[in-house]
Fold each of these.
Amino acid sequence: DAKTTQPPSMDCAEGRAANLPCNHSTISGNEYVYWYRQIHSQGPQYIIHGLKNNETNEMASLIITEDRKSSTLILPHATLRDTAVYYCIVSRPNAGGTSYGKLTFGQGTILTVHP
Amino acid sequence: DAGVIQSPRHEVTEMGQEVTLRCKPISGHNSLFWYRQTMMRGLELLIYFNNNVPIDDSGMPEDRFSAKMPNASFSTLKIQPSEPRDSAVYFCASSLDGANEKLFFGSGTQLSVL
């Protein structure tokens, strides 16, 4: 699976948009970009994923560059509860059996949302 | 749905004792994963089951670790004998197969081996 590079930490003011970058220059054609977050003392939580088109759900938006070598997770209106470690992961999808995409978690980005 | 349920939430034991961690995946999910998290090594995948069959156990650190999934609604991770370096948070996660699956994690078991 392709490796990712994320900044170790970022700050954001409450109510503002948080833009978290991720570089994945060695991504393969069948690999997706997944974002998870982990709030202190909890298990990781799925946020969003995409292949090549931009994606949006109730939690966030995912912008993937045309060459797919980088992406940005956008939390449009950050709140204090969004303070967490955010993980960007590149993997092929889990199609069952031996054809599974192992989600390898790196160090992530510690996002701190302040009042 | 109650989500992925793990027990116990906390476990404190002495070196050499057997430890059993338990996981109930989300009903209908056919993939189950055990992860371990430490400050030094972050989140590591230990083992992956699909339809109750172990598919990838390459992350299991050594023979002291074993995992079973006797049915679709229950899995165990056993450490025998336990050592202080096994102290970590152990997470269980489940998912549906498919091109757009996502993992649902439990709340974890905080294991301390003294």
Amino acid sequence: EVQLVQSGAEVKKPGESLKISCKGSGYNFASYWIGWVRQMPGKGLEWMGIMNPVNSDNRYSPSFRGQVSISVDKSISTAYLQWSSLKASDTAVYYCARRPSTTGAPFDYWGQGTLVSVSS
Amino acid sequence: QSALTQPPSASGSPGQSVTISCTGTSSDVGGYNYISWYQQHPGKAPKLMIYEVTKRPSGVPDRFSGSKSGNTASLTVSGLQAEDEADYYCSAYAGTNTPYVFGTGTKVTVL
């Protein structure tokens, strides 16, 4: 069974750093890109970026480039989303999702989401 | 890249059909046949319902169907059931550097 299991909820202060994780199982982790999607409270889905676990090739949405960093450790089938300095506006649920390597492929499996709350 | 435009809400009675539109541009919806639709129940992760405009993943009921004409894609849910009440998001491919553009989302209510 394909599963993407994300790390637990986080409560942080503005200016703090954070790294959340997404562990894949039940499939060949290296054969699928991993993406991250933000959902702010009561709002829609926003694509943040994707990464190829094989060679770390990546794409970022212009809205998130320079604001977050995506990485993977294929040895432990885990992807990460990282902030160096959080802002209150980063408060949201963050989903990881798997994407087949073919052009135009959708996100076919999703993690359960990680709630990040940033407040002073 | 702007979000694709969806109506905020749609509704229908059990057994009826509801169609949700997703309007973009020739650079995304109109440019490629890579349109996906996701269903999201409150507090849950999105679930893939349609991909490549018309294809359904294994396990998705055939009550869900997709189509596209020009810069507008559509999702139709036939024979509405109570469990279809959810938020629905479209997504379109807009090129190698922008593989995903999401729609604004539509809340479907089963009356």
